[in-house]
Amino acid sequence: MDKPGPIPTLRDVYRARKIISRYLPRTPLVYAGKLSKMLGTDIYLKLETVLPTKAFKVRGGVHFVYMKQEEAVKYGLVTASTGNHGQSIAYAASLFGAQATIVVPRGVPKVKIEALKDLGARVVEYGSIFEEAREYAEKLAKEKGMLYVHPANEPLLYPGVATMHLENIEDLPDLDVIVNPIGGGSGASGAVIVAKSADPRIEVIGVQAEGAKSFYLSWKSGRLVSTGKADTIAEGLATAQTYQYPFTILKDRIDDIVLVNDDEILRAVKLLLEMERVVAEPSGAAALAAAMKIRDRLRGKKVVVMVTGANIDPELLSKILSQK
Question: 265 CB contacts (<8 Å, ≥6 apart)?
Answer without folding.
Answer: 209, 232, 233, 234, 282, 283, 285, 286, 289
